[in-house]
Amino acid sequence: MKRIDIYRTSPELYDAMMALSSASAKDVDVELGELIKIRASQINHCAFCLDMHTRDARKHGVSEQKLDVLAAWEEAAQLFTERERAALALTEAITELGDGHVPDEVYQRAARVFSERELGQLIALAVTINAWNRINVAARVQPPGRR
């Protein structure tokens, strides 16, 4: 079944999401931001965002090894910094909300290694990529064809 071209039919949605994306990424390390976006997109099965953000991550210097094991980052913890591990744990908790909340220990782990400003931005970034993922998955937005 063909889905709507949501960004064509609702351009104000696209504009609002772009504004939110820009605001949430402000002052976030670009490589860390890409890891957050990719991890949430893996969980949400958003092919469009995975395609976009893995390419962006490579452009910004994220190693192929990190990208290769990101879905199992806890098993390859030595490849990721403490800040990356805390951000990824927080991203997963925000994305999955299995118990209806972000566990205190996950939040505290992130709060120990990020300033309040950084923590707020990371939360906003994780929420924003989740919104993009859900819109794209619902509308079945596809990645561009083979390059």
Automatic annotation (TrEMBL):
Keywords for the protein's UniProt record, in alphabetical order: Oxidoreductase, Peroxidase
Give one Pfam family: CMD
Q: Where is the Carboxymuconolactone decarboxylase-like domain?
A: 11-92
Q: State the name under which the record lists this protein.
A: Alkylhydroperoxidase AhpD family core domain protein
One GO molecular-function annotation for this sequence? peroxiredoxin activity
Q: Which SUPFAM superfamilies match?
A: AhpD-like (SSF69118)
Q: Which InterPro entries match?
A: AhpD-like, AhpD_core, CMD-like
What organism is listed for this UniProt entry?
Answer: Mycolicibacterium rhodesiae (strain NBB3)
